[in-house]
Amino acid sequence: MDPRAMVVRLICKSAFQVANIKAFAAVRASRCNSYVTSFRSYNVAAGRPTLYRLSKLWFTRTLGSYSTLQPDKGKMANSNDSTEITEVVCLESDLQDGQMKEVEVDKHKILLVKSKGQFSAVGSRCSHYGAPLIMGTLLGDRVRCPIHAACFNVKTGDIEEYPGLDCLPTYKVKIEDGKIYVTLNTKATKRVKEMSHRAPEVCHTVMLIGGGPASLVCAETLRQNNYSGRIIIVTKDNLPPFDKPKLSKAMNIEREKILLRPKEFFQQHDIEMWMEKAVLSVNTEAKTVTMDDNTVQQYNQLLIATGCRARRMACPGADLENVRLLESFNDAQDIHNLCAGKKTVVVGTSFIGMEVAAYLSDKAASVSVIGRSEYPYQLSLGPEIGKMTMRMLEEKNVKFYMNDNVAEILGENGMVKEVLLQNGGRLEADAVVFGIGVLPNSDFLKGSKIKTDQRNNIIVDKCMRTNVPDVFSAGDVVSFPLGVRGDELVNIGHWQLAHAHGRIAALAMVNKPTEINSVPFFWTALLGKSIRCTGYGHGYTDIVFKGKVEERKFLAFYMKDNIMVAAASLNFDSAVGLLSEMMATGKVITRAQIESDDLSWLQLP
């Protein structure tokens, strides 16, 4: 049949279908894409690209842009395929310098900002978990999310501090006759930076060991900086990079809901994912990596971002069948299923142990928590906050056995039956979950020239470079110089810092060395309440509180030599974000400021 006749016939058929499928967006999308793809294959192969373009034009005008009709799958709408809408959003006089306002264009929320006399408009939702940025903190040209402190440039929309991967969309702003007009050109809430692709003629390989956020951000940053060589991420996990902090907070979460990027993303940007492979050794002289399947891969530059593993308990019975550690997605699912309706003992009262206990409090038949200190979080957050969290869980019938430890786990037929405490107590148990700390995954480096500290953390400089040329390291496995503590070498296992490390390592790889200056930020979630922390409180001497801990609304300042080194809060989220941003800009917060009656500088609600 003549191809032009095919076009006419298909257009008539499709026009009839349009009225019947408007309510079925997914069907409409797949048909439109199918038609366009079929025409492209047929006509381009036959040397008729013009006919393909005409057919594509008709489908786009009739059914809508086929690229924006596709199921989300983590892809952002293309602004070039969207219709522009311009509306008056407010008066010029409505915003003073240093203020922001949430406005709407075509029922789509936009963040309007006035900074240094200039108006700008960006997406209103944080690209991490979608929190409203209007509730956050604006300092200069940066807005910081109130929930997990991701930071965005209000001029460019670019993400400048993590967690999260994507930037904000930006919108055109015009001022006319005292009115502010904003032009909406996309309803996407996120924007992925443009990335290059692999060029076959480029013989250069960057290998990234570890499947966490450090490797992912490193790979993306390389592509965003026009790196066109080969990128390989190798991980022992059976998933591509995923949102690991969720595992202890929502242990039965679906696999697809924790992926940081869909699998198609890696194919689209020429990033190879090698899953279920463990690295056995690194030869920095030959520049090779050997894996457990006997694969030997050559590299030109190497990132080691292997993170940490859960510490195992050295006590009799720790190897019984229903004793668990939380390290992977499968572990989380297994613990959820194993403990449901069963008597569960959780060992450890720091962040993982407490989150697991809180999660299981309404799912297990009983939850008992064993801790070595008087209160949970005693070394990290202090006894006052620890006592409060203990009370929160006790209200959900969680029982605590503090100032104690496990002497032995008793079993029958290979299964846990009882936990014997060091003080002589005995706890009935069907399952035991350990959350007693972590160890760095650096054992495979033994015999190499890469330097580690006494705890086997890899030592790096402020650009994430190791002592070996072309070898970088990032994330929980490193000791790095922390700027807010005078470049003291520290090991901090925070999700946010792993992202930042990956970006800094990538910039060094492409000869754009940039020193790490991120301020640590961390959060923990218990029974629907989040405690948020910023800074580095190790070695603090005392805590100054604003609000009342017992009422579960407080702001805690951790002091050392009359200077604030860290802060934590419950229900004072924006204040912690502000403190984090102040520290990031080099501001020193003194005891006199904190103890003053005038706390307007904190912008408390």
Structure in words:
23% of the residues lie in helices and 29% in strands. With 605 residues, it is of the alpha/beta class. The strands form nine sheets. A six-stranded antiparallel sheet has the order 1-10-9-4-3-2, with no helix packed on it. Strands 13-12-11-17-29 form a five-stranded parallel sheet. A hairpin with a 4-residue loop joins β34 (542-548) and β35 (553-560). The longest helix has 21 residues, at 25-45. It is globular, with a radius of gyration of 27 Å. This is Rieske domain-containing protein.
Which structural traits does this protein have?
single chain; 605 residues; alpha/beta; 29% strand; globular; flavoprotein; iron-sulfur; FAD; metal-binding; Rieske domain-containing protein
- Cα end-to-end separation: 71 Å
The unreliable regions are 3-81
Main sheet summary? 6 strands, antiparallel
β content, as a range?
Answer: 25-35%
| Total E-strand runs | 36
Shape: globular
| Class of secondary structure makeup | alpha/beta
Biggest sheet, spatial arrangement of strands: 1-10-9-4-3-2
Number of helices: 11
Mean pLDDT: 88
Query: What is the radius of gyration computed over CA atoms, rounded to a whole number of angstroms?
Result: 27 Å
How helical, in percent, are the residues? 10-25%
Family: Belongs to the FAD-dependent oxidoreductase family.
InterPro entries: FAD-oxidoreductase/Apoptosis, FAD/NAD-bd_sf, FAD/NAD-binding_dom, FAD/NAD-linked_Rdtase_dimer_sf, Reductase_C, Rieske_2Fe-2S, Rieske_2Fe-2S_sf
Domain Rieske: 87-182
GO molecular function: 2 iron, 2 sulfur cluster binding; metal ion binding; oxidoreductase activity, acting on NAD(P)H
